[in-house]
Amino acid sequence: MGNLSITKITFEHYPDGFGIGHSAPRLSWRFSSEARDWKQIAVELKILINPGATSESLNTFRIETSDSALVPWPAQPLRSRDIAEVSVRAIGERLSTPWSAPTTVEVALLNRSDWAAGLIESAVPQSIDATKRPVVFQKEFLVESVEKSRLYITAHGIYEAKINGKKVGNHVLAPGWTSYNHRLNYQVHDVQSLLVKGTNTLVVEVGEGWYAGRLGFMGGVRSIYGEQVGLLAQLEVDGSVLCKTDASWTCGTGSILESEIYDGEIVDYREELRTSHSVVVKDLDENVILAAPEIPPVRCIEDISPVSISKSPSGKVIVDFGQNLVGWVRVNLKSFGPDCAGKMIRLSHVEVLENGECGSRPLRLAKAQDSITLSAQLPEEYWEPKFTFHGFRYVQVDGWPTENAMPTTDDFTARVIHTDMEQTGWFECADTMVNKLHSNVRWGMRGNFVSVPTDCPQRDERMGWTGDLGVFAGTANFLYDTHGMLGNWLADLAAEQFEQDGVLPPPVVPDVMQFAGPRQPLAVWSDVTVTAPWDIYQNFGDISILQQQYESMTAWIDRGLPRGPNRLWSKTAHQLGDWLDPSAPPQDPGKALTDSQLVANAYLVHLTGLLAKISTILGHQEQAAMYHRDFEELRVTFQDEYITPNGRLASDSQTAYALVICFDLCANEKHKEGCGDRLEFLVRSNGFKVATGFVGTPLICRALSISGRDFLAYRMILEKKCPSWLYAVTMGSTTMWERWDSMLPDGSLNPGDMLSFNHYAFGAIAQWLHEVVGGISAQEPGWKKILVRPVPGGIITSASIKHLSAYGMIECHWTIESGKTFNVEVFVPPNTTAIVVLPGQIESQGVEVGSGRHEFCIEYNSDTRWPPKPITPPPPFYHAEPDEFAG
Prior knowledge:
Elements: E1 5-11, E2 18-20, E3 27-32, E4 40-49, E5 57-63, E6 83-92, E7 103-107, E8 119-122, E9 135-143, E10 149-156, E11 158-163, E12 166-167, E13 171-172, E14 183-185, E15 187-190, E16 198-207, H1 209-212, E17 230-237, E18 240-244, E19 250-253, E20 256-260, E21 264-268, E22 274-282, E23 289-291, E24 298-304, E25 308-311, E26 317-332, E27 344-350, E28 353-354, E29 357-358, E30 369-373, E31 382-383, E32 390-398, E33 412-419, E34 425-429, H2 432-448, E35 449-450, E36 452-453, H3 466-479, H4 483-499, H5 528-540, H6 543-560, H7 596-617, H8 621-642, H9 654-662, H10 669-685, H11 700-706, H12 710-718, H13 725-730, H14 766-774, E37 776-778, E38 785-788, E39 798-804, E40 809-817, E41 821-828, E42 833-836, E43 847-849, E44 852-859
């Protein structure tokens, strides 16, 4: 046996244990070892509470459990500000781990009564309907001795805090975006290293951000949550409050004139800091939950240098960073002297070029511009914005104040930001274009997971659309540890839902769509109340997310969803359907091939079945029986409504058949065979191109695999003509697009309004890449039991996949040697098992293996159906091309 050790202890789903909002955090630990067939039978815990304090206590526990994920806290509940050191020793039948190094957890402020501070605002009123200039709040305070020091802080707006001129922490866009009327997250910072004995100065600048800025398309609305930005802060040294927001603070303005999420930031360095105004103290609404966040903070994760700087046909200076990203540009100011005073540099951010010029039409009414007016004596060597972000690859630079007005690549750095989730998924294969597709999926997710899971990061929208997340959650959960972020978002969804009689979930979370009219029930979009918690549970094995969201789920299904006489969806309900399928006209993205009622009702039957399972898991037996009965009845009603005796559907489309196959809605084998045959016909007659939108795209390849047609799924994934996943790759994309043809083959932009070049929904295909091409999936929720079942196909001769689970790294690497031998290497982490199913086998023929590294080698026979041929004669809109896979 190899060395067996514990590599990481975590508390709940926090990336680290500092400043958590739990008094009894559940414990998890990962293992590092290639030990064969090792299972935990018990665990020993040492928990030292408040080490070095008069209240110090040490407790040792032994728990007879095989669980090493989300183990209940065995010690006394922790109180606000408590610190505990936890060490773990896992016991096996023949081998045990050594004691782990202590891992520290520190509790934040658990109760409102822990807060001595009040919410302060400027006494100078701010405009409701115009841009609000950021407010600078300032306070001096005395420190007699520098000991354990914590700053608890949040804002109505986005804040940046400095102590004695040095930035506090490495968070950006804090405190993040929540449903501020219901929940306001605060942050905890260790500021001991920033304090000095004697006089200290705390300066906090607050921009309007999501709280008071403009939100929404069609011009949007300002001041949705409040008219004034505000600050709540409390600095403690050794548990005593030394500085808190109260009436003694002053406020004013600095060099930032404007800073908006959509429009960008305007800075004038000639403006000096003035904090001579008084503040007013306001009561924070007692109904608002003040919470230590479950979600990791947004941080600058990566810096990217320009790949080129050139002039456009019209003479504009354009910086190309080579990657469509989300964040901002840091500008090097060191070369500017006093002669540059008063000169303005403007940065305009876009995702694509059109005819060599910046393509700004996709931004709609978002300016996405930052500008800097220089002063004779610049206060800093580098500038970057504080209270905005952009989605961009290209930046047009106007007004560069050098003799030739041409900057160099050393003058700019793109700073990539997103919620700082731990990466947990990796995939690559022998096809470089498929690898690029997967990279695009990951970049698209990163750019749209900025505090909330948004639809897009660049235009006048950037909202938490429920439908987008609903179809992508399974992919997201594999690639990154999303539990804290999505759990935070779902808590907001429930809070918003219950605000309006507890039935209708909002289409975007947080809900800023009031300007667009009353909420409407929407299949798929509203259904995220059930699908997202279920996907989180499947990946992380955490029953608490089902408990947290159960009332939200049942309220939607039982009371929110409008039904007709047959208890399917009411036929009068408006639906978005298979949004943005490739047949939809540019100006009518909802006009899809698939009947939107079929989409809605397929989801309804599926969700009812999920609720039966969820109710069983939670021990709600009466509800489980009711939902199971409803599921069986609705399934029959759906079959009568939409499926012919031969397995043909009333809506003859790729999406319709994918839904029926993946949701197991067929009545018998004849139905299944008929649906599979018809789906094959539709795929082949369309020249292997995609004919699905938001709903069908995550399911189409999975449906082909379920129906025994992996070869067709491979052929679709390898197609390069539009519409296809690889078409955008051939056009130089570095993220996923909103439309299959956001850019037309001639390089011009689609004339439609929905024109984001960073939209992750179609990237949900990555889940099929992970499970079928890579070959791993969770056999049981949380990955304690793993299914390893790689299915090779097409021209792909090797693949490698890794997933960092709660137990440790899971790996599968396979290759086809000389077209005749299939080799696979599997790594199973300690305290888990895997079922390994090799090509040509069915799941019942798989071999169960324990932890460790395992190798398998079998004779390989390629699928004789490869390469598949398109069915002729093709429909009028299909133009046959030579088949590159014909050999």
